[in-house]
Amino acid sequence: MNGLRQFVRQWFASGEPWIWMNAAAVGISITAVIGILGLIAVKGLAHFWPADITLIEYVDEQDQPQQIYGELVELDALPVSQFLEAGGPAAWVAPDQEVTERWLVKTGNRRINPPDFRFIYVGQIKQISSPPGVFAVERIEWGNAYGQAQSLTVGRESPQRVNPQDIEATLVERVARANEIRGQIDEIEGGVLNRINYELERLRLEARGLSLQGLESSARMTEIDATRAELQAEYAIHEADLRKLYEQLDQDTLVLGTADGRTLEIDLADVLHTWQPNDMSTLAKLGHYTSAIWRFLSEDPREANTEGGIFPAIFGTILMVLLMSVMVTPFGVIAAVYLREYAKQGPFVRVIRIAVNNLAGVPSIVYGVFGLGFFVYFLGGNLDRLFYPEALPAPTFGTPGLVWASLTLALLTVPVVIVSTEEGLTRIPRSLREGSLALGATQAETLFKVILPMASPAILTGVILAVARAAGEVAPLMLVGVVKLAPTLPLDGNFPFLHLDRKFMHLGFHIYDVGFQSPNVDAARPLVYATALLLVIIIVALNLTAINLRSRLERRYRGVES
């Protein structure tokens, strides 16, 4: 026994247990991170797989037979006691059964048979099958529709009913035609008409500015009127083209037969995609899966953000993070250089450092309130009064927008850059400074040609940490620029191309909105997981880019070729 005690004392004295404990903590942390990411990936990416459409035959609470088409989404268990307490029929469970199971079924067709998600207990189900020929139809509104194709009518003025054996091929062709026409409509509405409206608004503001100066009869006002007339004539031409495209789009009608014997009439103008998952091979499903993920990444959201894609949120997140990085880096570096290289070390500088460290712990919502009061109302309001009086009372910069969101997050993350840069400056040997000065370089030349290049890896470390924090922030952005659905992107083809005053979408806020503000929680849940996974991937990609650049700089200033 004494030998064992002595061995334990020696083992603890050697420090080896603490090494094992640290290794275990790191292993647990890595496992937890991988597990969370794996859960998010499985829950999110499974949403895009074209699941089979099942025909479920079951009895309702009145013991009446029912039939419905749907996708089996999730199976969960419920204690029988809880089920019976909630008023569940005892006939749906066996006498000795302790747990009952229920399926969450995506039934679609919520326009004629709501809701489009419902729970069906296993005890209700009489039979489940996957009949061939069932169509899944993705619509612009009202979600998916499921049913057997009963008829397809092509044309509006002289409608022609397609032969039943040709419906599948004709439907693919007509949906592709509708998507092509819809793309042409988007090009006109989002391109030339958007440009004309932008130019007309700019001319209106310029004319109002001249009126405020008492120059209503000036030559420039005459030019404005002539230009406005030209733009309105051009608008009328494209508007006529747009009406023709809408007439071409609204021509075809598909009639689906639902499982309960009803019919659902769908205009192909409202259809985005159709597929028959029960008849698709694994390879065909994989192609559909890849296409669905691409549409999720490249399209705009629909149906209160519960359908469609998230491209505007991706674009807004990356653009805001890049602008924030451009703003925070010079301010953080200048502050750190002053505190380390120029300020006289003493109590005042120590107080400043303490304040900087404390700023890193201030709740982010406080920065949002400050950004709203100072940047938006004070700076933006004064900018509007000085430079945009013709637009008042409608605000230009006196309202939340991209520039104020970027500045607010720059203010939020500047302590991180200051601390990281100061640490990098501290590690540079004093002999290098003295050697540079001894060779005749000025203090500024020493700073820009010796000190800052050697401290650049530490500066990039601060930027990496700032990006990681700013990309996931939501609370301050809700006050200074982010919105549920932005009508246009902050970057377009209209001068000055980058519109810093516009509101934007953000992946973090999109997750919050879809997860907690959605009118259709069951439809939104997989999109929350998919969007969260994408946000993590974007943050990791931005960080890896900065880490790679930092590694190159470290190798360079160690005298090793990159």
Largest sheet: 6 strands, antiparallel
Q: For the record, what is the CATH homologous superfamily label of the largest domain? A: MetI-like
Q: What string, H for helix and E for strand, traces the elements in order?
A: HHEEHEEEEEEHHEEEHEEHHHHHHHHH
Structural class, by secondary structure, is: alpha+beta
Query: What's the CATH architecture name of the largest domain?
Result: Orthogonal Bundle
* Percent of residues in helices: 55-70%
N-end to C-end Cα span = 59 Å
Residue fraction in strands: 5-15%
Give structural notes:
The protein is α+β, with helices and mostly antiparallel strands and 562 residues long. It has three domains: 54-132, no CATH class; 144-280; 314-557, MetI-like (MetI-like fold, Orthogonal Bundle), CATH 1.10.3720. 58% of the residues lie in helices and 14% in strands. Helix 7 (311-342) packs across helix 10. The longest helix has 46 residues, at 167-212. The model has no long low-confidence stretch (mean pLDDT 88).
